[in-house]
Amino acid sequence: MLKNPLSLRPSKTDDLSWLNSFYESQMKPLVEQTHTWNSTIFKKSFDSQNTSIIKHNSEDIGMLKVQRHDDFIYLADILIKPEFQNRGLGTSLILELISEAKQKNIPLKLRVLRVNPVRSLYDRLGFTVVAEDEYAVFMVIH
After folding, report:
1. Quick count: other Cβ atoms within 10 Å of Cβ 123?
2. The pLDDT of residue 36
3. Could you tell me if residue 100 is left (phi over 0), alpha (psi between -120 and 50 degrees) or otherwise beta?
4. Which residues, 6+ apart, have CB-to-CB distance to 4 below 8 Å?
5. CB-facing half-sphere around the CA of 39: CA atoms within 13 A
6. Among 76, 72, 45, which Cα is nearest to 63's?
7. pLDDT at residue 1 tops 70
8. Residue 3 above 80 pLDDT?
9. pLDDT at 41
10. Residue 24 banded pLDDT, cuts 50, 70, 90
């Protein structure tokens, strides 16, 4: 499915400590631009069944959290270490999800913080805004 050197592996409860630190390092600076950071939110919502570790060769470089429902797919999180960003790696994973959703004839949905620069990627890929709140934009692609 994915081309080498990029691969996914299922997360395990042993990954929680690294994932929590990684999530905080990536998301806290963005969240704090709009509201107070909640340091317990990731641990409380961690679901190893829906979370994968993104690997580049043998290195863990990020996480992908996807919730699959009968009538839609939800891209809950995609985070990649800064030194691996802007190489098309995240884009390739999102394109895989778009393809999966199209094959199943269901939408792919996501929520992105208004201040998150990845929003421009979602626009370029064809996601459209379906709702907004004070902190985030809700997007979908069919």
Report:
1. 13
2. 92
3. alpha
4. none
5. 2
6. 76
7. no
8. no
9. 86
10. very high
In sequence order, what are the beta bridge partners of 141? 108
SS3 85: coil
Q: Do 32 and 68 touch, CB atoms closer than 8 A?
A: no
Token couple for 43: 């641990």
Over residues 38-64, the pLDDT tens digits come to 989 888 889 899 999 999 998 999 999
Please give the pLDDT value at position 7: 94
Extract the tokens encoding 14: 């042993």
**How much is the mean pLDDT over the chain?**
94
**Tokens 């050197």 sit on residue:** 5
Distance CA 41, CA 24 (A): 10
Q: Determine the Cα–Cα distance for residues 67 and 6; give it in Å rounded to an integer.
A: 21
Report the C-alpha gap between 119 and 136 in whole angstroms: 10
Angstrom CA distances, 13 to 16, 43, 46, 52, 59, stand at 5, 10, 9, 11, 18
